[in-house]
């Protein structure tokens, strides 16, 4: 890690300690040895802590503070949302940890935005990344199968980046869905998956919020305008759906078709869901024919918008 990505503290340590230390830790020893070294370092450091230190961190560390939403309300929202997606999606109870690199390697997310453990794993920051891994395992057993894997999960996720927006939290509950299948030509997979995700998300939002929903669709590569128009026509009167060519956020995350869903609360639009086509399973299964649609619904944000 060099240039602007290097944290100032790392640059300082390079100057004041062995300049090859980072190279040793990042690539100079095996992953198993690094885990052993970090575990021992944490064991020794925790021996220097007092109960007051732990309480002090609990009071000030945004990652460990309780959620702002009433837990009974959140459980109700989670159950309603999950019930709305089954069927056609199969619910999966994900582990709270993911393989190291599940977000950075698979989805291209900066590792600084992920909480990494000293045991060589990531705290889940997005269930769609892990659901993509599960779908890839299933698809890899029979990559020519026309079957589409439709998976969904509700996860408590942790995001390391700072958010300034209201109702943005370091940890929150997220409903994630993926549809993994094989290209069948004429953008048929893309159209069907997009319509399925959007109608399913609308059903989940209706069960929790009940207000008006706006869908905005974007085609970043500019080659699938017919797909957007077909999707909008298929959505019909279920929600206001429109093209959003001005969108720039997540251009590198979604190569082509993507969307956002907004609900109106007290006269203000609140973004509650996001999704689109990604190429993750093409790399995981090593086949250009693989197709993957993902989407996520922020359940806490939706709950606050419904209160």
Written overview of the protein:
There is one protein chain. The protein is of the alpha+beta class. The chain has 11 helices and 10 strands. It has helices at 8-16, 21-28, 31-46, 51-60, 71-85, 104-107, 127-140, 188-208, 225-235, 280-285, 299-306; strands at residues 90-91, 97-99, 121-123, 149-158, 171-182, 213-219, 240-243, 257-265, 268-278, 290-298. The strands form 2 sheets. It has an 8-stranded mixed sheet, sandwiched between helices. Strands 2-3 form a two-stranded antiparallel ribbon. A hairpin with a 2-residue loop joins strand 8 and strand 9 (268-278). The longest helix is centred in the middle third of the chain and has 21 residues, at 188-208. The mean pLDDT is 90.
